[in-house]
Amino acid sequence: MKIYFCGSIRGGRSDVLVYQTIVRKLNTFGTVLTEHVAGGELTERGEDVSVEGDKWIHNRDLDWLTQCDVVVAEVTQPSLGVGYELGWACSMKKKILCLFRPSSGRTLSAMIRGAAEPELVQVQDYREEEVEQVLDSFFSTLKVA
Fold first, then answer.
1. Is the dihedral of CA 59, 36, 78, 10 positive or negative?
2. Listing from the earlier edge strand, what are the strands of the sheet with 95-100?
3. Spatial contact of 35 and 64, defined as CB atoms under 8 Å apart
4. What is the Cα–Cα distance from 98 to 4, expressed in whole angstroms?
5. Rg of the chain over CA atoms, in angstroms?
6. pLDDT tens for each residue of 81-106
7. Residue 53 to residue 92: CA distance in whole angstroms
8. What are phi and psi of 46, to 5 degrees?
9. Do residues 2 and 31 make contact, with C-beta atoms less than 8 angstroms apart?
10. What whole-number distance in Å separates Cα of residue 22 and Cα of residue 115?
11. Of 21, 23, 29, which Cα lies nearest the Cα of 6?
12. 20 to 30 A from 63, CA-CA: which of 3, 82, 87, 116?
């Protein structure tokens, strides 16, 4: 199974430790195409691809989205890029799990929470210590075409 993980990069890296836990767990279910999102060396400046540039990142990531079987997004830290990826994933009819921590004090965008559709898009509120169980539950019921 190919998994596309979404998490904030240029929108803020304060949740990188949560991303690392999620990606470690996702690796038990399949291949995570976007492991670099959880990289501790990655800063808000993004990837160091000065030669290739932003267009290259955009095209590579859309290619990965096309290839993937499922999308898992940590959506607590607001990110334009994650929202864009989720929009594309919805249009591609990908199965999507959005993870949100209410303890952050933020309110999840209605465009994310309102997209919930049981067969395609799930939005799951969670506490950090529950994330592995939430992923186990999601993947145990996942049916990929």
1. negative
2. 31-32, 2-6, 70-74, 95-100, 121-125
3. no
4. 12
5. 14
6. 999 999 999 999 999 999 999 999 99
7. 25
8. 90, -165
9. yes
10. 22
11. 23
12. 116
The pTM score is 0.95
Q: 102-109 long-range CB contacts below 8 Å, 24 or more apart?
A: 103/127, 103/128, 104/76, 104/77, 106/76, 106/78, 108/75, 108/76, 109/75, 109/78, 109/83
Rounded CA-CA distance 50/140 in Å is 40
pLDDT for 74 equals 98
Under DSSP, is residue 100 helix (H, G, I), strand (E, B) or coil?
A: strand
pLDDT at 18: 98
Name the residue among 95, 57, 92 with its Cα closest to residue 73: 95
Greatest Cα pair distance in the chain: 42
pLDDT at residue number 8: 97
The per-residue pLDDT for 50 is 63
